[in-house]
Amino acid sequence: MKLATLVYVQQNGHTLMLHKAKGYQEGKWNGLGGKFDAGESPEECMKRETFEESGLLVEEAQLKGFLTWPDFDGEDDWYAFVFVVTKFSGEVRSSDEGELEWIPNDEVMNLNLWPGDRVFLPWVFGNKFFSGKFIYEQGEFKDYSVVFY
What we know:
- The protein is α+β, with helices and mostly antiparallel strands.
- The protein has 2 helices and 8 strands.
- Strands 1, 2, 3, 4, 5, 6, 7 and 8 form an 8-stranded mixed β-sheet that branches.
- The chain is globular.
- The chain starts with a strand and ends with a strand.
């Protein structure tokens, strides 16, 4: 089981997206984030991962939901706390994970995203807290379920 954060940094009608350069997500666009370190809270992980991947210091964020991907990478179940960052300081710097780019919000869905991301991204920017479960089999999107609160 892997615990992670998924972070969408917002500024002036744009979202900071990461074009993954390595691993099983190579070529896909994603939000920031990553795996928890031992003893971290979701908020600590979100802040650390955002800084490590972008150089930005989170000042304000909102927890928007929770996502589950059973056996997503063929090895582990993944669970992610999903945040939107609305206030930060610092300047975006290069990332070892891939290329960072501010994408206009109305163009995010045109990126090479995971199919499930196309389903949950509208929830991230909506007004209800969500818990979603996304089923992939050998990298192919099969199904999802969601509960809104």
